[in-house]
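Quick start: read one record
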Amino acid sequence: MPPAADSQLIIEDIHLSFGGLKALSGVSTAVRPGEIVAIIGPNGAGKTCLLNCINRFYHPERGRILFEGRDITRLKAHQMAAMGIARTFQNVELFAHMTVLDNIKLGAHVHLSSGPFAGGIYYGKTRREEMALRKEIEERIIDLLEIEHIRKKVVHTLPYGLQKRVELGRALAMRPKLLLLDEPCAGMNLEETEDVVRFVLDIHEEWGTTIILIEHDMGVVMDISDRVCVLDFGIKIAEDTPLKIRHHEQVIKAYLGEQDATYSRLQA
């Protein structure tokens, strides 16, 4: 875990439970600016719960979260976008009867400064802001994600893989400093997965965005992550480079079980 002084995001001793079920038990980690950090673990390990605490969907019982030196633990979920934290979800969360372009534009409205009166009459400053926003989305986001051909299509008519791409575009429209990706490759075939990986790397390289992703595809995790944080039953059991995590005994046990882990070592 990087030292606090070098970190953009700091997670300290986070505890979260639902009734008698402990979802997170004292999880701590930190992320440097510009890193790609993967959070992995078996089903039910608490991965999505941790992301939900970062962007304030859940409120931890103990611990704190700092973003760029500011304690965000008690802020509201809607304040996260304005601070530069954007999120995609495991299940697509789009406005199904709106167009691709309109869905993506919604992500950027947190940055518009025109008041409600100006917005209601769509005149002057509001119109200029909307036109600049549309130009930015078309030149930066739609081109980057290669969705020019579907920009006017209604979202519910699109295949799942393209809907996931649109959701990523909406998150990018928030101009994030920190991008949280919850299983961006889930349910995709090999070609679609390769496209998503390429887009994530382009976002990271061209925009310098810090990225935290949850992903079950270990090939993706090992290929693109700078560091990997491993959760099991709400407890952090390891955090290291992908190469070291690949051979970490406790991580192997968490994924394979004791007997299969022993077999795996014998075959190595």
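Residues 146 and 161 are 12 Å apart (CA to CA).
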